[in-house]
Predict the structure.
Amino acid sequence: MNTSPTETNNQDQENFILSFFKLESAGGIILMFAAVLAMIFANTELRVYYDLLLSTPVAVIVGPLEVAKPLLLWINDGLMAVFFFLVGLELKRELIEGELSDRRNIILPGVGAIGGMLVPALVYVYFNYDDPMLRQGWAIPAATDIAFALGVLSLLGSRVPSSVKVFLTSLAIFDDIGAIIIIAAFYTDDISFVSLVVVACCIPILYLLNRNKVEARSLYMMVGIIMWVALLKSGVHATLSGVLVALFIPMKSLTRKNFSPLKSLEHDLHSVVAFFVLPVFAFANAGINLTGVGTEQIFHSVPVGIALGLFIGKQVGIFGLCYLAIKAGWTRLPAGMNYTALYGTAALCGIGFTMSLFIGSLTFEMGGMDKLFDERIGIIAGSLMSGIVGFVLLRMALKPEPQSQ
């Protein structure tokens, strides 16, 4: 029996999503292990080695150009650029031929992502309104960690329909877009005009490579490294170079039929990011020393605002706007989902671990702010509560598939 091109394309998309889900789920489990390991290191006699490792100075010097940072910042600025590069690849593929290429599939996760960023930010600002310095952390609870969320979702096994996976993945992609815009617009230091000129010169080079369907990864990498260093020196966060380079990777090949340079690169990077980049980032940033931490630190307005922003704000924002959009007739619930499953998925989006830690480091850690709180306490608490509630609600809402006799 022959299948139509449309059916074949739909099958390819579903197979890609299922393989993505399996990979991200496994990565999420490793991410959890890395976070737990960081907590063990930070709260035992191993802490001295943990601190020594992350503070190790690393410098790259080429003539008059010098990039010198402690290892922690190389991880946050360098490795996370690879993560954002993968995000850019996923975004371009989804917009061209994936789930986001169909307007009907955009509305519900798009509306949910808006609510999932806006309401958590408002919750945080409510608790920190009186202090302009603390208000800078408003974006910390606005992020969703797709790897962690899919890792929890994988614990439900075969009872999870593909519609739930697609909705969660699509919403997380919109969430990443929002995070990229927020980082570019709000988390910049003093701007260097000369460095931005270098970045501006890199863009037409990338355009010409794309226009001529150049597939040599080394050329894009060379331009990307130059752009990364320039952004690092410019004051705009260097990880954005990853997104910019990704948008110029060719979708189709001129020389090889049915081959996509973008998809090939995305496939190769998924394992690197899921099993190395994100776990290393989690290990480097999740090590909270709980020695001497009392109620004053735990119930400080910053961790409380973050925890409730992730736990309450995400649920209310995502479910509330999605519900209104469905009732207004703009969109409908995906097949296989009910309102309990939608709410459970919204709760699961309150797991903001990786991106929340990253934005938190931009807000407080790198600013050297002397504070009586640790924003990571709020991130871990809010993410943990969201994961538990989301898992329980989805387990209640999604019935296991009947076993064949």
